[in-house]
Amino acid sequence: MQGSNSQKWIDAMIEEYKSMQDNKVWELVPLPEGAKPIGCKWIFKTKRDSKGNVERYKARLVAKGFTQKEGIDFKETFSPVSTKDSFRTIMALVAHFDLEFHQMDVKTAFLNGDIDETIYMVQPENFESGDPKNMVCKLTKSIYGLKQASRQWYHKFHQVIVLFGFEINVDNCVYHKFSGSKHIFLVLYVDDILLATNDIGMLHETKRFLSKNFKMKDLGDASFVLGIQI
Fold first, then answer.
1. What region holds the Reverse transcriptase Ty1/copia-type domain (predicted)?
2. Do 58 and 47 touch, CB atoms closer than 8 A?
3. 223 falls in which pLDDT band (50, 70, 90)?
4. Strand ranges (DSSP E) for 161-226?
5. For 33, 35, 48, 104, which has the most beta carbons within 10 A of its beta carbon?
6. Taking all residues of the chain, what is their mean pLDDT, rounded to a whole number?
């Protein structure tokens, strides 16, 4: 906060906090007797492009998941991601059949996940309201830092994409959809989505569906994915 870019970080924090409010991630409640809230903290990161230039200043509010108690605050934590081999296979298909290859990014992906446990969290620093000692955030959605966050996001995404007619492939994070001679592949890597298709109409239809269900950022033609320049 003492640096020359402090206003950019403050704006990033406000944007993140607004995301939390828009997604109704928590409700402010009095801390029940005997309950122990988990902590939270701000993480700051600059996102850079393939040339190393700063694209944006990003603030992320994360829960201190290391204070969670197994069986009370979480049960299962495993969440799949697509393998590099699957990614390379899709890339080979794109090159061989000259497919359209686009990239999308899910904004605040983990906030889409629902949680099954009752979890209380202290209010975020600089955004407290009421009496911060007695008023806490009762989480209604998953949040970054929770041990089960990535698992809950994957479950949510899987439910939504299957409803749209996509089927899972050999890899749990590679989906496909066929319609006559038209086909589209979807690769999910946490919050990065890659779409490979031989039909522009199918591509736009899928993008519209994703944008309707999640807050998405359309990055157009895939150029820089998982540290690989295409």
1. 23-230
2. yes
3. confident
4. 167-168, 174-179, 182-189, 192-197, 216-221, 224-225
5. 104
6. 87
Residues 6+ apart with CB under 8 A from 162: 168
- Which amino acid would we find at residue 136? V
Q: Is 162 helix (H, G, I), strand (E, B) or coil?
A: helix
CA distances from 28 to 128, 173, 207 (A): 10, 35, 35
What's at 221, amino acid-wise?
Answer: D
Q: Where are the domains of the chain?
A: 6-229
- What are the residue ranges of helices labelled H in the chain? 6-22, 84-97, 149-163, 200-213
CA atoms within 13 A on the CB side of 121: 30
For residue 216, give Cα distances in angstroms to 2, 97, 103, 115, 163. Answer: 33, 27, 10, 22, 18
CA nearest neighbour of 191 among 134, 109, 113: 109
Residue whose token pair is 């990003």: 58
C-alpha to C-alpha distances, 104 to 21, 39, 64, nearest whole angstrom: 23, 31, 28
Mind listing the pLDDT tens digit for each residue in 49-102?
Answer: 778 888 889 999 888 877 566 655 555 556 677 888 898 899 999 999 999 999
The two tokens of residue 174 are 């590679």
Q: What is the pLDDT of residue 98?
A: 95
Q: Is 29 helix (H, G, I), strand (E, B) or coil?
A: strand
Residue identified by tokens 């806490």 is 136
Q: Within 13 A of 203's CA, how many CA atoms are on the CB side?
A: 16
